Amino acid sequence: MASAESRQFGNLATQLVQESRRSTLTDTLLKYNDSLVRTVIREQRNLENLINSAIAAQADNAAFTGDAPALLLYQTVVLRNKRCLLAYHAHRLDRLKDMYWALGGALPALLADNDLRSRLSPHEVDFLREYNASVMDFRGDFSAELDIAASITHPPRDLHALVRVVRDCGVIETELGTIDFKKGQRFMVRRADIEHLIVQGYLQEV
Amino acid sequence: MDDDYYSIDSILSENQKIQCTFKVDIPDMGHLDGGHERDIKAQSRVQLPLWLAFILIYSDYADFTIPPPFNSRVRNALNAEAKSVKLSALVGAGGFWYGFGKMIMRLLDDEPANEMSGLLTKSFRNRLVEVIDQAQHFAALGPAGGGGQSGDAALAFREGLEVTERELFLLAQESAKRTKQWYESTDRLRR
Amino acid sequence: MAGAPSPFAVALGPIELDFGALPESLFQQLMRHWLNERHAPDILPVQAEVLGALLDHIRRQTDSVQALRGDPDSSEAEHARIMLVQTEVERVKFVVRSYIRTRLYKAQKFSRYIAATPKVQEKLSQTELDHAKRFSQLTENHFRVSVLQALPPHQQGLDDNTPFTPPMISEPDKSRAVFVHARGECPPVRLPDGTTMQMKKGQIVLTPYAVVEQLLEMGNVELI
Questions:
Q1: Run of H or E residues at B163
Q2: Does A144 touch chain C (CB under 8 A)?
Q3: Where are the domains of chain B?
Q4: What is the CATH number of domain C18-109?
Q5: pLDDT, tens digit, 9 for 90 and up, residues A77-102
Q6: pTM for the complete prediction?
Q7: ipTM of this complex prediction, to 2 decimal places
């Protein structure tokens, strides 16, 4: 065990941020590192104690004892750790938002993915729910004219798409009337009617 | 690089270390850089991460030296022939040279800061042309393209790109490739 | 809509299909604002009129198409026209959607800054502002329950301003470089080094966003 290393303040916080970098590079969301977060928070509490001791010592002795730079050092590490903690959490929220929009704003689909769900902290699930609620309201203001959650990466080419049903999606209203999408069947449909079903994996473009 | 509080890249880039010399004693902090001494003594030289160095230098508890990637030998080489310098060798494979330089500038007075600024922008301008040139050439020929003498020099240059330049190279390459694909697809539609 | 003046087209028979005269000038305006929004590091003033007009256009076109499709007497030629109108509508919807989403992204990114700065709030629509404020609270709350609550009291601030560290409330970076195209003659502007720059019509420059922020708002330039 490296007690010298563990006293290298800021190392643990760096590890957290490196996980964020790894997450970006591999384009995945890693499991929420609850134990590392807690450890950094513990380090923050230790630092707070050291700061309080240094302040007390300085008050006792009016002469310059070298505690002022120590105080500054501790304080700087505290702020650095805090920045790392918050950036780690903020980065994860950004990834979650991206995933949410990639699925066309379908929260149930996102949360139904158990593999993903297991990597989230309970707070992150709460965040997603509340985020979704706000987005739904936002979306509602435009829904008479268009779905703002549809694709913004692929400009419309053909009006229609040939799709194959990968998973049953039941009866869907389209411009051709109601269609019962059963697995294995193929349909030529208007892209705008079913784009969200492609995004969520029910239909596959042929 | 986004200079944002929450920016992962910004935070990690501040982990880069510079050589500092303490001006005061700081008892019980000897472990700071993984050292084995109990106390920090004035005049002791330590490698400190930028996020810590900034405040110590600003508060006059330490001095620093210009890091090797920006020493006079490097400056001269860049002023002579910017394209010939392997920046990645100076800051390591995943390292930012320009970003590092930008951060060092925060510690400099006006005149040396302006000089550094000039060095960074001039080097970037000179090298960028070659970066884009090669990216587009590669987009046309594919990864196996470019052999012979000029090929070796070109390869050496690419190997010497630091991270920012490498990202630009990849972007330019991807962009050239997509443009080509678009031309070809629209050609097909016309036939 | 007999009698009502329209920037678009002429009524064609009992059911209007505006397809003959696409609202090109209005759509072109949106395209310009859309590209400006995509390139600018700051959120721009919302173009409520252009947006509103195009949303109306989308709704009218969609309604017309529905009506025509439901009509069993419509001819082959009319069906072809329906396809074309639908294609045009999808195009317009795409740009409208992207414009809205680009702004939404920025409203989220700078949500705390927006919530704290009334002057910036004027640039957002009410819908956008509501979401930005909610998002700001949502984010702050998440930080609180995940991190700050467990820290010692002195460390719980979400508003620190430390030397050498960016502010905890993210602000747009107006020093970011943008490519600017002068749409016409421009008044002179000041560059960071104190000199002035006066763009001529058609000129393209690469400059920090802050330099051209006013020109952009006045429509003298566009971002490319």
A1: helix B163-190
A2: yes
A3: 13-64, 68-190
A4: 1.20.58.1030
A5: 999 999 999 999 999 999 999 999 99
A6: 0.86
A7: 0.85
User: Top-level CATH class of B13-64?
Assistant: alpha beta
Alpha-carbon distance of A37 to C151, in angstroms, equals 11
Q: Which two tokens stand for residue B16?
A: 């880069």
- Topology of domain C173-224 in CATH is Ribosomal Protein L9; domain 1 (3.40.5)
Whether residue C131 contacts residue C110, with contact meaning beta carbons closer than 8 Å, is answered with no
* DSSP line for C58-76: HHHHHHHHHHHHT-TT--H
Three-state secondary structure call for residue B75: helix
Which structure tokens are listed for C30? 């949106």
* Facing residue for A93 by CB, picked from C142, C145, C168: C142
Nearest to C38 by CA among C117, C99, C82: C99
Number of other CB atoms surrounding residue B160 within 10 Å: 18
Residues C41/C174, Cβ–Cβ less than 8 Å = yes
Which of A15, A26, A73, A78 has the most B C-beta neighbours within 10 Å, making it the best mutation to test the interface with B?
Answer: A73
Q: Please, which pLDDT band fits residue C71 given cuts at 50, 70 and 90?
A: confident
**Which residues does chain A have within 8 Å of residue B29's beta carbon, measured at their own beta carbons?**
70, 73
CA angle B130, B133, B137 (to 5 degrees): 135
Closest of B94, A124, B17 to residue C145, by C-alpha: A124
- A52-61 confidence digits (pLDDT tens): 988 887 766 5
Q: Look up tokens 């010399």; give the residue.
A: B21
Using DSSP, state whether A135 is helix, strand or coil.
Answer: helix
Domain ranges of chain C: 18-109, 111-170, 173-224
- CATH number for the domain running over B68-190: 1.20.58.2050
Residue carrying structure tokens 């160095």: B53
